[in-house]
Amino acid sequence: MNLLSLWPRARRKTSPGGDAQRDEKLLSSLFLLAWAVEARDPYTGGHLWRVARLSRLLAQAAGLDAGQVARIAIGAFLHDLGKIGIPDAVLGKKSKLDDAEYEVIKTHPEIGLRMLAGHPLAALAEDAVLLHHETPDGRGYPFGRRGEEIPLVARIVGICDAFDAMTSTRPYRAGMPIARAMGIIESELGRQFDARLGALFIALADNPELAHIVGHSDEGIPLERCGACGPIVVRPRQAQAGDTLYCPACHSEYTIAPAGGLLATGKQNTARALAASPDTSLIGRLVGENLTALG
């Protein structure tokens, strides 16, 4: 598939072999933007990677072909783009949101859609970005769609997004065990979660791959937390012993120990913490595998 064919405007002429390079750059640009949005929230490190991986698992369990699975994984990684428009005071609040703050959070799907407007690959992610908080009972947002009115990708991403939220630690609560989160999904089948897809997801509880997604920020990279204030300190796969990492909230400095854990140095460095580089290795792998599947 030529990804630019998803854009309704006339295609430009390209040199032989240029299409694949262009597609890679276009998709990378969206993934890098999504990474930058996620980096604003110190408590959700790895969320996009986990939701994309969980959505891939569920799409495969639903019997979808490789191209459909790739589209869903792409939409899952990009689903929270609109959170770039949410004020820091709301996005990083360390207690539960009040009603007014929740109304602000509920604007992020439409903000995300506006961010995608005009991008050549917008069609790959629009449904996931705009509709992942719609629910079968019509109580979701932003439109209150019901049942089959909600696109398949949004129903899949909605389940995986909620599961990751339940199993991830937040400032006001610890992450749930997998079994408890699955029980909540089961109790909400047909209401908050699509009944058929939700049942397929529950059946993944014993899938060994699930345990390597929950509590991780990349394949084989468990989440690390700041010992001073609690947020996630994301460790890129390419990081080595002796490398320096920073808490995104309090900017405490850590070095990677020879055994792989984090050692606090007792220092803080706001400038280096705020200038953290995107995980281009992870993004490159995700872009490559999904473009390959799309053909």
What this model shows, in words?
The termini are close together. The radius of gyration is 19 Å and the shape is globular. It is 45% helix and 8% strand. The chain has a single domain (21-220, 279-294), classed as Hypothetical protein af1432. The longest helix is centred in the N-terminal third of the chain and has 21 residues, at 18-38. The relative contact order is 0.14. With 295 residues, the chain is mainly α. β1 and β2 (221-222) form a beta hairpin. Strands 5-6-7 form a 3-stranded antiparallel β-sheet. The chain has a two-stranded antiparallel ribbon with strand order 1-2. Strands 3-4 form a two-stranded antiparallel ribbon.
Structural class designation: mainly alpha
Instruction: Please count the helical segments.
Output: 13
Overall tally of structural domains? 1
Q: In angstroms, what separates the terminal alpha carbons?
A: 5 Å
| Mean pLDDT metric | 90
Key words describing this protein structure:
45% helix, 7 strands, Hypothetical protein af1432, two-stranded antiparallel sheet, disordered N terminus, globular, mainly alpha, three-stranded antiparallel beta sheet, 295 residues
Offer a quick outline of the entry.
The protein has helices at 18-38, 47-61, 66-78, 88-91, 99-105, 108-116, 126-131, 152-167, 178-187, 195-202, 208-211, 270-274, 280-294, and strands at residues 216-218, 221-222, 224-225, 232-233, 244-246, 252-256, 262-268. By secondary structure, the protein is mainly α.
